[in-house]
Amino acid sequence: MAIAGAGQLNLHESPCWGSRSVDCFEKLEQISEGTYGQVYMAREIKTGEIVALKKIRMDNERGFPITAIREIKILKKLHHENVIKLKESVTSQGAKDEQGRPGKCCPIPINNLLLGATKYSPAVDMWSVGCIFAELLHGKLIFPGKDEPEQLNKIFELCGAPDEVNWPGVSKIPWYNNFKPTRPMKRRLREALGNQEKAPATATTRRKGQTTEITAFTASCRLPPIQSGQAHAQMRPGPNPPLHGSQPPVAAGPGHHHGKPRGPAGGPGRYPANGTNGGFNHQNHGGGYSSGPYPPQGRGAPYGSSGMPGAGPRGSGGSGYGVGAPNYSQDGPTEVLVLDVALT
Amino acid sequence: DDELISLMSKEKQAHVGNIDVCSEVSFVSARKRALDWIFKVKARHGFNSLTMLLAVNYFDRFVLSFKFQKDKPWMGQLAAVACLSLAAKVEETQVPLLLDLQVEEAQYVFDSKTVQGMELLVLSTLQWRMNPVTPISFFDHITRRLGLKTNLHWELLY
């Protein structure tokens, strides 16, 4: 056994360091901050192009963050005018942190872990998917909290307050007692979203699909503390995944007890509307993409064929998914970025 | 069959400037050691086949485009760890910690920071292209052609 130190790597001498440096960009202002890092509005010095620059925080125990890898993977597969396009990944000096550079619209972090929980899990993804559907349907943010308490409150108002009955183990989550609502709150999701008269642009064009979307939303919010195998099947469509502009299939049978309020982050307050480039403006539904159609660059055929249910051992069999008693650290609320899909 | 054509053209693009993996003796032995280790860890952690394919793909692309520092015998192992770690992050639900990944009589054990540095080097060297066409990419097409529908069929394939 031998331990090799980081100093021996000489990363900077490498002639093949393939990424550009973040110095190619000039940061203009911070747009948002999350536990994943910060997002800046920036200008590419050479071209003057305005982009969103997302700084990714490194996790030393796990190396390059899996959430960033997944985000890059997903963004590269999605080609839709309402989904942010990943333009480039750049590195900053010292290679300590690494920056993704999406461009041309404002990202909405759909979901961060709340309540001091730190365990990223498939259940969190399910919640995120539900939030995305709800926002598509609703035409705006569904939990526009400025900060964590406000956001939790908005979630509780809509989804009902979590307690040991609907979410066994919730009282053991670090900050539960600080944030639990003082009065009982009923779930009124269906009432609030079930009869959408004023549908957003995306839904209006496909009115027929609306019922499906509502169902999908409700279902995804009701996913039980699933085993990883199941979760995987949900998240990985089988053959021919309908990724291009259509909804990911989220199917769940009825009768599951409902899921976990892992609140989304973000809200109008966190992203000051900024009309300078037509991109950073929440109110501007459908109008923010003045720059023409997206080039099909980087587009590859889907290859998501490995995720067949039961295709080999996966995961640890639904032990802790942040549901019952999640593995959270005692050091306080390290939040984890879950999904960062942009909707306008 | 558009899908098939697109897969093949993507694959062809990736192979532009193809170099024979077996052209250099020092590569051959380093590659064999690295791949043997990757296969063992794959079995140990129960990773799926695509993860393994990706790890090997990253490894080959990396060592071919990166000047292998031959005076550093641990380099191959470090590259293998980083490639497998990245592949697992791309493909697996549960990903072990970097230290837990380094099992199966790894010749060297690297601290997390070192592996992270190598991960970044691999990512940039591969220009962040982490989803290459693999043999598994063609499975969807083949199964549809063959009309395989039941789970049993799928299990046979995998």
What distinguishing features does this structure have?
heterodimer; A: 344 residues; alpha+beta; Phosphorylase Kinase, domain 1; two-stranded antiparallel ribbon; 8 helices; 8 strands; disordered N terminus; disordered C terminus; B: 158 residues; mainly alpha; 64% helix; globular; RNA polymerase II CTD heptapeptide repeat kinase activity (chain A); serine/threonine-protein kinase (chain A); CDK (chain A); ATP-binding (chain A)
Structure explained in plain terms:
The complex is a heterodimer of chains A (344) and B (158). Chain A has 344 residues and is α+β, with helices and mostly antiparallel strands. Chain A has a domain at 22-116 and 333-341: 2-Layer Sandwich (Phosphorylase Kinase, domain 1). Helix content of chain A is 22%, strand content 13%. In chain A, helix 2 (122-138) runs antiparallel to helix 7 (210-221) and helix 2 packs parallel to helix 8 (228-235). The longest helix of chain A is centred in the middle third of the chain and has 17 residues, at 122-138. The radius of gyration of chain A is 20 Å and the shape is elongated. Residues 1-8, 11-16, 95-112 and 197-344 of chain A have low confidence and may be disordered. With 158 residues, chain B is mainly α. In chain B, 64% of the residues lie in helices and 1% in strands. Chain B contains eight helices and one strand, in the order αααααβααα. Chain B has helices at residues 2-14, 25-45, 49-65, 75-91, 98-101, 112-125, 139-146, 151-157, and one strand spanning 109-110. The model of chain B has no long low-confidence stretch (mean pLDDT 83). Strand 1 of chain A pairs parallel with strand 1 of chain B.
